[in-house]
Structure prediction request, 208 residues.
Amino acid sequence: MGRTWGVDRPWQQLGVIRPVVKALHAFLRGLTTSAALLFGVVAVLLLSGNGLWQGQITTGDLANAIALMLLVGFAEELLFRGWLWGELELLTSRQRAIGIQAAVFALVHPWYHLPPVEAIALLMGLVLLGLALALQRRADNGVLWGSIGLHGGLVGGWFALQAGLITLPGTSPTWLLGAGGANPNPISGLLGWAGLGGFILMRRRWWR
Prediction:
């Protein structure tokens, strides 16, 4: 990136190297947002009888959840909301760049392995997630750590929930919780769409 576009400090341009206080504040804000989104999903599941709270998790599963949160969150955000989005903003308009990076982010995930209807539902959810993560970075004035916290928190948090904090019967409606049976992906169902859609609406001014 530095050689191609003549940027002297590429890691700052990517939003990774920023003042510690700002980076930590952004990360915690993203993590808090992910917790709020997951809380909404779990609350609906418990109240509707589609889930049972267990409140148990092993040390190993907790460590795996934290590893997923940090590794997946950092790697994918550096690639998509860091490098790719930066390239797209230089090649096209700011508004178009948000949509294109979200589409690319969605398309490279293995949504196509599912049956057609479920595949389209997951693809739509991935697009919404890509938009939400981009708007999170915009709201954080270019700091990447907010989107890392949001993305990592959703991935690691959902893993922790399924690892023992809640029990899902595997009979929840696909349209509500998403495809996957006993291991569903919420962003492919109505609960995930509603949460991400609401978040995007609250952040819509950052699309300009």
